[in-house]
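USER: Study each token:
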Amino acid sequence: MNKDIVALEGMEFYAFHGFYEEEREKGNHFVVDVALTTSFEKAAETDELSGTVNYEELHALVKAEMEISTKLLERVAGRIIEKCFEQFPTVTEVKVAVAKKNPPIDAPIAQSKITMIRVRK
């Protein structure tokens, strides 16, 4: 089994996620990383995009999920993972990290971050 990885790292969004209502009203800056495990065998042989994951489609998927206001970053990441498995049938594993810049904590913290890794069932 091949274990090739395609990733988009450092995708930046202004979105309305947070446990507190004020966070969902004001919004904040977020950074998302997504890595998909698949096989590049077909793409390596044919030089065709159909043999891999299209970056533009992946970015559009993440952007759409980031536009849905959510209390928990874990839920945002979970939806991104679900959609990746739906949209990209050759993907066997998805890793998603979502970071919130300057979280509302009374301390100097650059960002809070969650990471989820799921394997296709």
The first strand starts at residue 4 and ends at 15. DSSP finds four helices and four strands in the chain. The mean pLDDT is 95.
